[in-house]
């Protein structure tokens, strides 16, 4: 059972505040599919840096066993546990881990995962003393969140995702500080995080499976969506990022014949340096070699490599289950 929710139950029973409305009947929102569904599609800019000056398809060659030996992923689970005078209080569990693949192809944990569970709510609006319970304020310093339950809930969920990202930055930063640049590379699920911009040529690659952001006008976007298997787009710099700049390109891992246009399409991020430009084809060949074994039964198997699924499964095995959370929430009502 969650230690945080056990302590919360004790606080609520002790105070018996009539403004507290405990919620026990909501579904548990967890992991990436939920986060992606809530994302808003938008258009951003890009600067093409491919030597040809074009985004046009580039054949990368045959799959090639590469130097990806370390893999990082994070997870989040969130649930409304109570309302305080109509203000939602969200329980958030976040974690991140790096797993390594040895010569025997077995996956192992690089270091203990980074984990945090906390309550997310507007401290300005929740007058509830919660001694010894980790909490994160959902109000921004410059602009408080509007006093609407749904807006407050959305702000809390974004804060949970931000907490997950901070954990991911932490584990990748530690890996970069300790890594031997002549050996393994780290493959990150999603956009690059951590202090990678402090290194001239970090052995670090991000694989983005979602396509909520479109970086090119439709004429050029058609070229990207029409990429055949084993071909990449030209390299470009995505604009509008809150993080340091990267070099990026699209790669088709699997045929989308008869499927959605984004099926099997990923976007790769790597350090903004000359080495990335020189090795874009090679890095793409490494990723093509990661297509087996399949990441089934995950619904994102067409874009997810197996070691990343392994990271997700490992983190899920450690996280509090829905049954555990249900039991903890029932204690709040007694």
Short description:
With 334 residues, the chain is of the alpha+beta class. The protein has helices at 3-15, 31-38, 149-178, 218-225, 274-288, 306-318, 322-332, and strands at 20-22, 29-30, 42-43, 46-48, 58-59, 68-84, 87-101, 107-109, 114-121, 135-137, 185-189, 204-208, 213-214, 231-232, 236-238, 246-252, 265-271. It has one domain.
Question: How is this fold's topology laid out?
Answer:
Layout: H1 3-15, E1 20-22, E2 29-30, H2 31-38, E3 42-43, E4 46-48, E5 58-59, E6 68-84, E7 87-101, E8 107-109, E9 114-121, E10 135-137, H3 149-178, E11 185-189, E12 204-208, E13 213-214, H4 218-225, E14 231-232, E15 236-238, E16 246-252, E17 265-271, H5 274-288, H6 306-318, H7 322-332
Parallel strand pairs: 3-13, 6-11, 9-10, 11-12
Antiparallel strand pairs: 1-6, 2-6, 4-15, 5-14, 6-7, 7-8, 7-9, 12-17, 16-17
Helix pairs in contact: 1-7
Measured as a percent range, the helix fraction is 25-40%
Largest sheet: 11 strands, mixed
Number of strands: 17
What percent of residues are in strands?
Answer: 25-35%
User: Order of SSEs, N→C?
Assistant: HEEHEEEEEEEEHEEEHEEEEHHH
> Which shape, going by the Cα principal axes?
elongated
Task: State Rg.
Answer: 22 Å
SS element count, helices: 7
Distance between the termini: 16 Å
Q: Could you say how many structural domains there are in total?
A: 1
- The SS-based structural class is alpha+beta
Low-confidence segments, given as residue ranges, are 32-38
What do the pLDDT scores average to?
Answer: 89
